[in-house]
Amino acid sequence: MRKFVLPLAVMLNACSPATPIIATVDTATRAFTTGQPSSGLPAMKTFGAPRVVTPVISNNDLALDFVELSFQLESGRNLPSFTRFEHPITVRVTGAPPPSLGPDLTKLLHRLRTEAGIDISRSNSANAHITIQAVTRAEIRRALPHAACFVVPNIASLKEYKSARRSSKTNWTLLKQRKQIAIFLPNDASPQEVRDCLHEELAQALGPLNDLYRLPDSVFNDDNVHTVLTGYDMLILRAYYDSSLKSGMTRGQVAAKLPGIFARINPRGQSVAGRFSTRTPRAWSQSVQTALGPGASTAQRRAAVDQALKIAETLGWQDHRRAFAHYAAGRLAQLNDPGAAKVHFEQADAYYQRSYGTSLHRAYVATQLAAHALSDGDGERALRLVNPHLDIASRSENAALLSTLLLLKSEALDLQGQSSEARSVRLDSLGWARYGFGPDWAVRAKQREISSLSPIKERG
Q: Is a pLDDT exceeding 90 seen at residue 460?
């Protein structure tokens, strides 16, 4: 489930595989947006060729991750057998897709072919194996109230899903082989939100259905820090479609094949020591969900985040999960106790800095710490916090994060008296904001939100 919130109160929706048996978990949602004509903002910017880095990771860790990702649903239910497509895969788009969906899908399919070695292509045939239907968020919520996007087996349309949602037809645990999959995406969200759903849901349509908080550099993680498929994800998907695996294999049969598979596709991982990260207790996951999701009171949120911090400390975690608990605590303390929030953000950054694969996580924390620096009138510190993270936001193709960092930078430059450079950076940020946040009013709201942090703007 998508539970992570972007910095400065911008929230992401939940995307999850659907099952008719287990109820989905409540999730945070982005405010409703609609497409509007341009009102003088610069043209929307988009990312060029991906700059994906193949991770240096132990094959022992990869094998453990693969089994846990592939034989369990997010709900915790076990999957009895391995399933995938056993033939070349075709993908079609139906409904009313937004203009950005076509280019983003083309780019993703190319990556799946070249990086994961999957035989997948686009088709206009009604018999395509994967159907991506673009509908309104209201239609998605009527079908699955707490999801922004989701994926189901043996279905080709939202209408068909509504009539079959509680039947065995859409039950992932009864699936023997993947032959027909439907993905439902919103067509009235920002371009980035549509793309993020596309990456996560298509990856789950093809491969693992589970998410693991212990994975730092993957879209298969409920924190939703990564929004496009990473080098790690492509390794997992390449293994998923290795010729030595096939649908119907048991957990033990798959596990026996994995050492040979990863030795072939990730030879560097043979000599890398395993990290053997501990599993994440469901109590910790539920605490984080309560703290950041909807439906809880302020007192309940605070109790939940305190519980998440206590569990992380008791288990002796020193990784990104402990950092994320501090980040969540900082978010909750932001309005009522900015000083305490700042301490939590600094602790989050310290744990992230010592953890593997968390450069993008640190960029999120940097937006919070830079906001505090701006509020204090310290433009120099804000620049020191923001500048190191601009490239990772760009490499991760996160336009919402990149535009936020650039807007913070422009305000810091104004504080330094560098007005001309500040205007140039601000203009650059707005092009990315149009992809990341969508309509003009949302872009301008984000600009006003960050501008209001500056003491000189407040005096004005």
A: no
